[in-house]
Amino acid sequence: MDKTKVRIGLIGTGYAAKLRAEALMCDERSHLVAVAGNTPTKTVAFAEEFHCTVMNSWAELVARDDVDLVIICTVNRDHGAIAASALSHGKHVIVEYPLALSVAEAEELIALAKIQNKLLHVEHIELLGGVHQALKHNLPQVGQGFYVRYNTIKPEYPAPRKWTYSHELFGFPLMGALSRIHRLTDLFGQVLTVNCHNRFWARETEYYQSCLCVAQLSFSSGLLAQVIYAKGETMWQPERRFEVHGEKGGLIFDGNTGVLVKADETTPIEVGTRRGLFAKDTSMVLDHLFDGTPLYVTPEESLYTLKVADAARRSAETGLTVVVNDN
């Protein structure tokens, strides 16, 4: 790695990739060398906007000698394969969650990064956002927590025919949307059991128009959490709500508005912005590479959440409550 700049290859041309590229352009320690995407016309336009080279495939990009760090911002299905190839070529890796759609594959990637002595960073910007930081700061005020409800519901009519509505490309809903579980494991620790029910509405095999995923997580602390993740044409009311109920009070976050509820008063909670989180994550990775400062999340923590999400998948498939195995 050059002592003054990290040379970067970016895989993907969508929303997250654009925010990454904008962050890189604003940081003198980085140089965006090349980009690879799934749609040639979009990839060319992206390369022109951010002044980098177009590659025909991600495989060609990760093999470049002038790339030190690979950032993976493409469909969930391909995260594991690209990360494995990049690490094998001696590159540092940033990958948007999930690390992989298979627990075994994720474990292999973490082991490979250690063998190669390279950074493997799984992005979890939900931990950096204002709501999560406010939750963490105010959690002690509610005493022993016993119930959590976390709902993210997004009506879309008509539903877009894109990868986030594809079984293969997105993965099981709570694995593809891993942040819904990761918020909980970060705040409340070890999960003992998971019970999950999942339903899709589809007019074709590859893409669906709606999904509803409901999971109950039982934590070792005794806390019970209910997670609803839903999107598409059969949803009618948008919702982004996080509730924590404790023995001394409650925390209620509706969108970006939060309150602390106690027996004698309700107090508004200041919630920071959701803007600029990809830039913050990118800057923290560069700080780590140049100065060795610790990152806010480890790949092992993301892997544990993936195990919980995989338990939810198995529960939805079997109709049984599944014990989370952390071996």
UniProtKB/TrEMBL annotation:
Q: Which SUPFAM superfamilies does this UniProt record tie to the protein?
A: Glyceraldehyde-3-phosphate dehydrogenase-like, C-terminal domain, NAD(P)-binding Rossmann-fold domains
Record domain Gfo/Idh/MocA-like oxidoreductase N-terminal: where: 6-124
Q: Which Pfam families match?
A: GFO_IDH_MocA (PF01408), GFO_IDH_MocA_C (PF02894)
Q: Which residues form the Gfo/Idh/MocA-like oxidoreductase C-terminal domain?
A: 147-322
Citing just one GO molecular function, the answer is: nucleotide binding
Cited InterPro entries: Gfo/Idh/MocA-like_OxRdtase_C (IPR004104), Gfo/Idh/MocA-like_OxRdtase_N (IPR000683), Gfo/Idh/MocA_Oxidoreductases (IPR051450), NAD(P)-bd_dom_sf (IPR036291)
UniProt xrefs under PANTHER family: BILIVERDIN REDUCTASE (PTHR43377:SF10), BILIVERDIN REDUCTASE A (PTHR43377)
Q: Which family does it belong to?
A: Belongs to the Gfo/Idh/MocA family.
Protein name per Swiss-Prot or TrEMBL? Oxidoreductase domain protein
